[in-house]
Amino acid sequence: MALSFVVLTYFSVMGGLGFGLWLRLRRARDAGASDARPCCVRCWYPLGSWTAPSCPECGSDARINGVAIGPRSGRAFALLLVPFVAGGALVAGLAAAREVDPVASMEFDRTWVSEKTDVIVRFESAFGGPLRGDSADENWATGTLEVLRRKARPTDPAMKVLRFDGRDRSITLDEVRAALMDAADSTEPVEIEQDAVALSLAVEEFQTAIPQRRFGTDSLGWGVTPKGRWTEMSGGGSFSVRASLRSVIVAIVAASLVLVGGMIAAIRFVGPGTRPVREGEWTSAGRASTAK
Asked: pTM, whole model, 2 decimals?
């Protein structure tokens, strides 16, 4: 709702400024205002054949208010409009950057309990890196698999902590099996083996999902739950996608160029609109151009 209001306000202001500038340009063109043919700044009545410096139409004193030679406040409107256009270009550029060159960051934690052995494990991990392009293969994932003693509470200290780093080290099946056997005491080896295989496969899938980009931006549950008799006790985490730093810089530079170019164009092509009246101009202005 807040974002929609901001977008609506932005386009409303930009549209209002643009419409105001268009009205002033059109009014000046219809009146034929120029430096050689100035007009009254209030009612656009052309100078020339006035008996006094006050406009015979509205009474505006040209010596005090000056004369119109183009769209009144046109340059000011143009200079106000340019930053809004540049801001729109920046927002569009950042949105495009997030789609073209996204970077992800995530924190993930889960706690599971084995239905057969009552062993509890805590799985925590984090990763960050690009999601597209060749550099996506450089994504990393680090984390721990903490194994608690049989029938322990989820908040108890871990009996065994296994660490993994997606770039250098993975948790092996032998490590998981040995940790579960120590934690489960006298449980049958077959049951330990089944739990260890399911758990190690889940960790491996988590690690390989990152460089292969096999996950969605709106889900934290992709392929991390071990199959079999493991039940999730708790879980949480966060996932965010943003534009890479280099793409943000490109968007900012592009918007800056739009801003600078727009300011130069506004000053170059939209005149100041008014100037002081010259002595006696109210009686003679426009005659030479009219004679031609």
From this structure: 0.58
Domain that holds residue 226: 103-240
Domain co-membership, 145 together with 220: yes
What does the pLDDT look like over 43-73, one tens digit per residue?
888 888 788 889 988 988 988 988 888 776 6
Rounded CA gap, 126 and 112, in Å? 18
Q: Which amino acid is at 167?
A: R
Q: Are 143 and 123 spatial neighbours (Cβ–Cβ below 8 Å)?
A: yes
Q: What is the pLDDT of residue 214?
A: 46
**Phi then psi dihedrals of residue 68, to 5 deg:** -90, 130
Q: Which residues, including other chains, have CB under 8 Å from residue 279's CB and lie 6 or more apart?
A: none
Q: Which two tokens stand for residue 16?
A: 């209002």
Do 10 and 45 reside in the same domain of the chain? Answer: yes
Name residue, tokens 């062993």: 119
- pLDDT tens column, 118-127: 888 988 887 7
* Closest by Cα among 128, 56, 96, 65 to 274: 65
Distance of alpha carbon 174 from alpha carbon 179, whole angstroms: 9
Q: Which of 171, 177, 159 is nearest to 120 (CA)?
A: 159
What's the start-to-end Cα distance of the chain, in Å? 61
Beta carbons of 278 and 66 less than 8 angstroms apart: no
